[in-house]
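Bumping my old thread because nobody answered last time. Still need a sequence for this structure:
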């Protein structure tokens, strides 16, 4: 079986089995040196989730592909890995760089509470991509929960930019409660204007709620797509992704047509620190997007 060497770092020794996603853009010229960006706006999306809009102070846009992430640095506090949530085509059009983050720790708290004009550091982009173009000619199924929609948003926008090249497009989305639904207005626009079958469910809902209640994996069994041609892109908590992949393969979707975004304690972004190691993989360079046929034996081992 052929191996694909990850080019993210010269001489990096980790390998990814053939059939996995190993596409990366050229690594940044100084991957450990953050570029300075200014926060132009902080938009609150849910009670604990915010979108940061960033502009480069040097005027040079940060080009990225759907699925990649950056390390965001709050000076004096620390840095965190955050998937890019914006449109890959928007960079050259002058659109700000977008990151949607949950306020869960010291660094994210500093970022979401920053005033417009605050300077932060940005390293990257790093990692592998969704490469949704592989699904051209077939049905596309996006499965996600909560803030997992943010890393998938660039791939959805990639597909919608060439909507006629794909068959059915489904977005199966789950959230904890109705108040935690992310990008609700945008999902409605996708459904109304771009022929996307959006199905939403929540884990818990108040009395009188008229939408679906249940786990997002329950939507897969009755979703209308052709498993023989379908590609699936999955992002969310590992338990949810594992259950979703099992439901998708049970429907007949090939394991190498299922891609997931893994985010395991990434600290450096270039495979040096080992924090994100998953057996022979370093998620920050061999991932974060990986094929399920590569991940399945790893995700089935508890505490690996």
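Sorry it took so long. Here it is:
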């Amino acid at each position: 079986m052929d191996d694909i060497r990850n080019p993210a770092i010269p001489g990096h020794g980790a390998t990814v089995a053939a059939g996995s996603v190993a596409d990366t853009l050229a690594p940044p010229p100084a991957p450990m040196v953050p570029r300075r960006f200014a926060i132009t706006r902080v938009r609150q999306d849910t009670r604990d989730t915010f979108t940061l809009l960033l502009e480069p102070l040097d005027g040079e846009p940060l080009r990225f592909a759907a699925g990649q992430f950056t390390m965001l640095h709050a000076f004096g506090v620390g840095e965190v890995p955050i998937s890019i949530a914006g449109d890959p085509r928007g960079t050259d059009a002058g659109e700000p760089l977008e990151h949607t983050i949950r306020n869960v720790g010291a660094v994210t708290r500093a970022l979401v509470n920053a005033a417009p004009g605050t300077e932060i550091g940005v390293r990257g982009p790093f990692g592998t991509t969704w490469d949704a173009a592989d699904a051209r000619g077939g049905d596309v199924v996006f499965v996600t929960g909560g803030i997992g929609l943010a890393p998938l948003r660039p791939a959805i926008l990639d597909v919608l930019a060439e909507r006629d090249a794909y068959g059915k497009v489904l977005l199966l989305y789950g959230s904890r409660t109705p108040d935690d639904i992310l990008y609700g207005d945008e999902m409605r626009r996708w459904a109304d204007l771009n022929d996307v079958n959006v199905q939403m469910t929540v884990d818990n809902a108040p009395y009188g709620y008229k939408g679906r209640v249940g786990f997002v994996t329950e939507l897969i069994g009755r979703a209308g797509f052709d498993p023989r041609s379908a590609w699936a892109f999955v992002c969310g908590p590992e338990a949810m992704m594992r259950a979703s992949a099992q439901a998708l393969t049970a429907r007949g979707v090939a394991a190498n047509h299922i891609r997931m975004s893994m985010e395991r304690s990434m600290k450096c972004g270039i495979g040096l620190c080992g924090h994100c190691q998953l057996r022979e993989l370093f998620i920050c360079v061999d991932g974060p997007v990986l094929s399920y046929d590569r991940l399945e034996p790893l995700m089935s081992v508890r505490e690996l």
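The chain has two domains: 25-126, 132-299. Let me know if any region looks off to you.
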